[in-house]
Amino acid sequence: QVQVVESGGGSVQPGESLRLSCTTSGNKFGVQAMGWSRQPPGKQRDLVAHINTDGSANYADSVKGRFTISISRENAKNTVSLQMNNLKSEDTAVYYCYVDPRLRPRAWGQGIQVTVSS
After folding, report:
1. What is the DSSP string of the chain?
2. Whole-angstrom Cα distance, residue 101 to residue 15?
3. Does residue 75 carry a pLDDT above 90?
4. Cα 78 to Cα 72: distance, rounded to the nearest angstrom
5. What are the backbone dihedrals phi and psi of residue 63, each rounded to the nearest 5 degrees, phi first?
6. Exposed, middle or buried by CB within 10 Å (0-12, 13-18, 19+), for 52?
7. How far apart are CA 7 and CA 19, in angstroms?
8. Does the pLDDT value for residue 51 go beyond 90?
9. 58 - beta bridge partners?
């Protein structure tokens, strides 16, 4: 069974940084890509950043130049990290990690809260 476990997050002030990490295991046929989406209060869930296992990535326009996504693999586990710099109040949201396994549907994590407030 595919597992997706997020860590990091918390509360920071505008201009500060946070790093989110997410580890997935149980992907029997391997992983094609991983990424992060977020859902601000009262709004829909939208893509933040997506990365393929070859390292190619794309970002939402609102986070380009501030967020960096990376992916690694160790001991049969894939990990995706999201380095978030110069955070703004509008980055406040629940952040969800996802994995796109080969030959299996997308799997999501439980979500992790990020709050940016002075």
Report:
1. --EEEEEE-EEE-TT--EEEEEEEE--TT-EEEEEEEEE-TTS--EEEEEEETTS-EEE-GGGTTTEEEEEEEETTEEEEEEEE-S--GGG-EEEEEEEEETTS--EE---EEEEE--
2. 35
3. no
4. 6
5. -115, -5
6. middle
7. 9
8. yes
9. 50
Task: Give the distance from CA 102 to its chain's centroid.
Answer: 19
Which is more confident, 74 or 84?
84
Separation CA 17–CA 106 (nearest Å): 28
Q: How far apart are CA 69 and CA 78, in angstroms?
A: 13
The residue count for the chain: 118
Distance CA(85)–CA(18), nearest Å, equals 7
CB neighbours of 29 closer than 8 A, spacing ≥ 6? 101, 102, 103, 104
Residue 40 identity (one-letter amino acid): P
What is the arithmetic mean of pLDDT over 34-40?
Answer: 98
The count of other CB atoms within 10 Å of the CB of residue 38 is 24
